[in-house]
Amino acid sequence: MTFKIANRASELIGGTSILKIESLSKLAGSDIFVKCEYENPGGSIKDRAALQMTEDALACGALKEGMTIVEGTAGNTGIGLAVVGKSLGFPVLVVMPRGQAHEKERMIGLFGAELRLVDPCPFKDPNHFYHTAKRIADEESNRYWWANQFENTSNYKAHYQNTGPEIWQQLPKLDCLVSVAGTGGTISGTSQFLKEKKPRIQVVLVDPDGSGLKSYVDTGAFASSGSSFTEGIGIMRLTQNFAAAKVDQAVNFSDQDILTISRFVRDEDGIVLGSSSALNVCAAFHNAYKGQKSRCILTFACDLGERSYSKLYDGDFLKSKGLDENRNMDQMLGSW
User: Fold this and answer.
1) Angle at CA of residue 333, ends 331 and 334, nearest 5°
2) How far is 195 from 335, CA to CA, in rounded Å?
3) Rounded distance between C-alpha atoms, residue 91 and residue 104, angstroms
4) Is 66 left (phi over 0), alpha (psi -120 to 50) or beta?
5) Do 46-146 and 9-39+162-335 fall under one CATH topology?
6) CA dist., res. 230 & res. 316, Å (int)
7) Per-residue tens of pLDDT for the chain, all 336 residues
8) Measured distance CA(62)–CA(271) in Å, rounded
9) In terms of Cα–Cα distance, which of 309, 252, 257 is closest to 278?
10) What is the pTM (predicted TM-score) of this model?
11) CATH architecture of 9-39+162-335
12) For the chain, which residues make up each domain, given as ranges?
């Protein structure tokens, strides 16, 4: 066994473990694994894109000494950039919509980044967090470098060059990869690499209510219904990063299913999932339960449940959304 010895926190990004979810694997008749992205120093899979984008900007001269990194984010990319920025000596300004989990707001500050909250609004509104971050960089281009995680394909590159090869080395028997998408970098980079190695690997996109990616995969047009308490995933436009994804199937699950699977895995396996991770695991379990048996299925534990405490693990919040914490697995399976 080998262990990393690093000189700075950013050097610890990547090389995450894979964990089998025994309870769901037994119930479904196939092996279901999660890649434990919460092991990254910033606590999420977004550390990978944050590091790659920053390193590539330094290499091409877009990011120079004395500049500040600015990005619009629902939280985890901002935390990742705060870790990377602090490690490499750059201040970070995070623009974030109000209403995200308070835990993410606190983490951004704990890692030393500046947080600027804006009112949530549709993407077409110039005050959207994405446009606000871009405008800050455009108005003072010598002072700020905008990471632009949605369209910056260094995001995709992080997963094509690193996450995908890690998975291939760890699970060469892989039959199915399941992933949510926000920017699209994770599913694009990993699916591209893994299908080059093993074309028959099935890639499944899982989309929350309120997102249009499933509709886009199915019909070529964005359409959505409902809403979700998940954060940082789902989108209503095609990004440069998602455009490279090799997706075979798209599925959708409700917040109630996310809640039910999160409680089952916590109680049976001692794994506390965040909302995006729980959606991933729900889709992986569904694929295993409904599909051919004795397969190997992998998804991502994007971060830990502590970042979703004020929503996914808050009884009052769940009641306000009409969600039932006591709904059991038999009831969920019956609805499938």
Assistant:
1) 65
2) 32
3) 18
4) left
5) yes
6) 16
7) 778 899 999 999 999 999 999 999 999 999 999 999 999 999 999 999 999 999 999 999 999 999 999 999 988 999 999 999 999 999 999 999 999 999 999 999 999 999 999 999 999 999 999 999 999 999 999 999 999 999 999 999 999 999 999 999 999 999 999 999 999 999 999 999 999 999 999 999 999 999 999 999 999 999 999 999 999 999 999 999 999 999 999 999 999 999 999 999 999 999 999 999 999 999 999 999 999 999 999 999 999 999 999 999 999 999 999 999 999 999 999 999
8) 40
9) 257
10) 0.97
11) 3-Layer(aba) Sandwich (3.40)
12) 9-39+162-335, 46-146
Reading the block at residue 236, the tokens are: 């209503």
Tokens matching residue 197: 């190695």
User: CATH 3.40.50.1100: does it fit domain 46-146?
Assistant: yes
Look at the block and give the residue holding tokens 């001692």: 270
Q: Tell me the C-alpha distance between 323 and 275, whole Å.
A: 14
Contact 36, 19 (CB under 8 A): yes
Q: How many CB atoms sit inside 10 A of residue 233's CB? A: 24
Residue type at position 43 = G
Q: How many CA atoms lie within 13 A of 185 on its CB side?
A: 27
What are the angstrom distances between the C-alpha of 281 and each of 29, 33, 93, 209, 274? 15, 9, 32, 16, 10
CB atoms under 10 Å from CB of 236, counted, come to 15
